[in-house]
Amino acid sequence: MAHALLIDKIDGDRLALAATGAWTSQNAGALERQIETAAQQYDAVRQVAIDMGAVERLDTFGAWLLKKLVSSFSSRGCETEVRGLKQDYRALFDELQQVKLEEPARRQGNPIVDGLVVVGKSVASAGDGLVAILNMLGALAVAFARVIANPRRFRLTAMVHQLDNVGWRAVPIILLITFLIGSIIAQQGLFHFGKFGADIYVVDMVGILVLREIGVLIVCIMVAGRSGSAYTAELGSMKMREEIDALRTMGFDPIEVLCLPRVLALIIGVPILTFLGSMAALYGGGLVCWLYGGIDPDVYLQRLKEAIDIRTFEVGMIKAPFMALIVGVVACVEGMKVKGSAESLGRQTTASVVESIFLVIVLDGLFAIFFASIGM
Amino acid sequence: MGLNGKHQTVIEARGVKVGFGEKLVLDGVDLDVYRGEILGFVGGSGAGKSVLMRTIIGLIPKRAGTIRVFGQDMDAASDRERQAVERRWGVLFQQGALFSSLTVRENVQFPLREYLKLSQALMDELALAKLEMVGLDASVLDKYPSELSGGMTKRVALARALALDPDIVFLDEPTSGLDPIGAGEFDSLIATLQRTLGLTVFMVTHDLDSLHTVCDRIAVLADGRIIAAGDMDAMLASEHPWLKAYFHGKRSRASHPGLAAALPSA
Question: Among partner residues B125, B192, B195, which is closest to A101 by beta-carbon distance?
Fold first, then answer.
């Protein structure tokens, strides 16, 4: 303790406390301890006189601590008196006397019940999420039907702008990543297949894997992380700043104005990116086969021709627009769920990416079953 | 701290120039704020009132001029000196600027927690006391800023600005968004705090009622300069066209018919 802010003098059952120094925020920590000590030390006194005349400064911290000091004695039945408080400080002290320290009682719950409540709520919210996705899908379909019936309503400029963002600007990173993935698959294949002299089958593996599965999956995961999150953040901040409400009051349907061009841009952009990505992966695979596995490009192409047919390519490309739709719909749903705070924007953006990647993979599994049963 | 006659100057701005790109918003502002006064700062929308306030508190860099707060030249101040000054002012932003990831209680406690070593119990009590002083009650303690109405946000933001019992509070349009009763209560709260704590208040405002009832002095910004500074009578007596339009306009007369009627020129 640097210096005493409260000097105590005991006389029988009468306690005289003299306050000194600055009773301000800087000294509040020390003052709090001195007051507690005084209150505990003199628990037998009957009369307390507090002389505030020598206090240099008093702010709300000091006034509050004075109130605490007074009430800690008076609640035990002591006669308590505050003397010498300057007129200005008296007003502040009186103001603080009116403060009621009643906090709303916190509910005490059974931990097991609370745990069950959390589980129940998350199950219900998963169901709600599915309903919200179907809801958005329906709203998009209605908006699309309106646009088909009256093509002049369609916001072509907005869609082209979005296509530029999600398609054209994504090309370099998609090419790079799929190129690397194709190379890695080929390298791993060569390494392991080489052990039993089946090097040439690496070409089959790269071709089928890339065209059927990896190309479209990698592209969709990239698009979900790159464009889905951007959609959610854009729509979410528009929601926060009441822009979406403004659109609605002017008689526009936000789904038609904001969501439809974005989702359509994805449906057009993702198949193109999938095609480009698959080609880059095949190129990467071929390059590794040549440089690392000693398979000449002529041989690689020849083998590729035998291993895959147009159906292999079709399987991948058919999936692309559906996956794009899922990414777009989830991004719009999560964007519309954003509430007032920055934290909620962050939470929904994360949810958008996680949910759309999850659903893309689930959809891929469903397609695998479907194609197997129709023999593709 | 400079002494100007009997007044002690706490904020002293000299020749402050601030611009964005080609445009010069403040073109040589000279302004003194004296200890213990409530200064109402008025000017047209877009005249640069908030810009000057933000320049004083160091959020916008200036192109020329000096600003002294508590006699401390803010350009020459070390980080430590700057922090010491920052601890002595509180700012109420126009939109409240509450931290959206913290509850009301945590928002008010934030400066206490960072600057003072207090027990959690005392901080809880003080947060509640501050909130009650600005006219709120315990029911808002655990709410998040997104759950508050505009007026409540303003009050919580004021409680946070006052959390450390600052010497100066900067208020950026404090009564906008409050209903007239709330605005009146706010004005009297400011007056009470100013009286009890010797608070200096720098208030950017358009509220003519606030200017009439609580402001000791009014400074007027137009064309990038302070065109007038003085009490209400001086403002009403001024012949400057902008001041005449401002203080003798329809809204002024509507809110203070007595005052306007007393002046035949109005």
Answer: B125
Mutation site, A31, A60, A101, interface B, largest B CB count within 10 A: A60
In chain B, pLDDT over 70 holds for what percent of residues? 91
**pLDDT confidence tier of residue A184, bands split at 50, 70 and 90:** very high
Q: What is the DSSP string of B124-166?
A: HHHHHHHHHHTT--GGGTT--GGGS-HHHHHHHHHHHHTTT--
Cβ proximity of A343 and B101 under 8 Å: yes
Q: How far is CA B138 from CA A70, A98, B111, B135, B151, in A?
A: 23, 13, 19, 10, 16
Residue B166 · residue B90 · CB < 8 Å? yes
Residues across chain B: 266
The segment with the largest mean pLDDT, out of A41-50, A103-112, A254-263, is A254-263
Q: Is the dihedral of CA A112, B121, A94, B216 positive or negative?
A: negative
Asked if B221 and B42 count as a contact pair (C-beta separation under 8 A), the reply is yes
The dihedrals phi and psi of B118, each to the nearest 5 degrees, come to -125, 155
pLDDT digits (tens, 9 = 90+) for A81-113: 888 877 777 777 877 777 777 666 666 778 899
Per-residue pLDDT reduced to its tens digit, B165-191 = 888 888 888 887 777 887 887 788 788
Tokens 């990038």 — which residue?
B224
- Burial class of residue B204, CB neighbours in 10 A (0-12, 13-18, 19+): buried
* Integer Cα distance of A60 and A45 in angstroms: 27
Q: Give, as one character, the DSSP assignment of residue A150.
A: S
Q: Is the pLDDT of residue B128 over 80?
A: yes
The predicted structure's pLDDT at residue B54: 87
Give the mean pLDDT of B110-127.
82
Tokens representing residue A370 in the block: 């479907």
CA distance A340 to chain B (A): 5
Residue A335's identity, in one-letter code, is G
pLDDT over threshold 50, residue A56: yes
- Is the pLDDT at B266 greater than 50? The verdict is no
By Cβ distance, the residue of A101, A339, A342 closest to B128 is A101
Query: By the 8 A CB rule, do B36 and B198 touch?
Result: yes
CA closest to A86 among chain B residues: B196
- Identify the pLDDT of residue A350: 95
B128/A91 touch (CB, cutoff 8 Å), yes or no: no
Nearest CA to CA, how far is B30 from chain A (Å)? Answer: 31
CA distance A161 to chain B (A): 29
| Chain mean pLDDT for chain B | 81
Interface residues on A facing B, Cβ-Cβ cutoff 8 A: 24-26, 28-29, 32, 59-61, 64-65, 68, 88-89, 91-92, 95-96, 98-104, 339-344
Q: Copy the structure tokens of residue A194.
A: 């080489």
- Tell me the three-class secondary structure of B7-59, residue by residue: EEEEEEEEEEEEEECCEEEEEEEEEEEECCCEEEEEECCCCCHHHHHHHHCCC
Q: How far is CA B224 from CA A287, B5, B123, in A?
A: 67, 27, 43
- Nearest-angstrom CA–CA distance, A261 and A171: 20
